[in-house]
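Minutes, project check-in
Item: structure for the 336-residue chain
Input as provided by the requester:
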Amino acid sequence: MPMMCAVAFSPRGKLYYADPGRLTPRVGDRVLVPTEDGAEVATCMWAPRWVSEDVGELPVLAGFAADDDLERDQVSRRRRAQARVAAKRLVREHGLPMKIVGVDHVSASDTFTIYFTADGRVDFRALVRDLNRVLDSRVHLRQLSARDSAKLQGGIGSCGRELCCSTFLTDFEPVSIRMAKDQNLALNPMKISGACGRLMCCLRYEHPLYEEFAASVPAVGARARTPDGPGRVVGHDVPRQQVVVALDSGGRRACDRADVCASRRAHEAAYPASDQRPAGSAEPGPNGPEQAAPQAGVGSQLGCAAAPDGAGEGSPAGGEHHRIRRRGRSRPAEGG
């Protein structure tokens, strides 16, 4: 089994996985990580551990950072701070509609990469010439999207924790307003938008649970039967796994989704617990003693959906009637 560790080039930066090789770094040790521009100093965030699956080709740590490497890293940090100040000053002097959000420096080639955000395209050719002259180095400018900018700068979200994009998210998955509607959230931009001004990435985390719940219970507006009587579904409480039903007799009742599962109620009404026999036993039927008794649990394998009033009551024939009506529905639900 291969070994793997995680390193970061900044205190709250993205985690990169590496092969420790013959090294055994501990959390907080400074190590050298090979990059396209040469070995860079990084901090070990996860100690080496065995992994049970092949994770592919990983860069092998070049060794522990020596005093010269640490001094070079400190010089690079100071030069990044100087480049940020110079870039902001020159942006103001040129009157460009852009915001500097980050600076990267490669010591081996003495190259700067300055990241910025802007509402549209910006002509920064004159700015690049002045930056090359002031910093006496080669400078690249790259425009970032709003989400990439928040990931680079970091911050605190409305939940009180660090931004997901700056801690553990590796890719941005599409998020739509439909996800907020399905989760019954108020469509207030101030509440469903993140630090980047876009829809919060966390809207996608619980959305599959809401889809599964909606597919396994009666829809809002459908008829349903509860232990307290029939009624109409008026809401779903997904965190509690409950369905809110307005009873025909008055009042509302929050029921567990098993209480409004038509197939389970039909099975229990057709095959009371006192009449159930072990699977495989036989009982006399209209066609003779060879007719096998229904097996317990067959009805519970049907999907959970709203049933019409009276379905599944009275006798085994009622259960068959329920199944026929269920198959005739335009939108059969999945098994609850």
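Outcome recorded: The longest helix spans residues 67-94.
No further action items on this chain.
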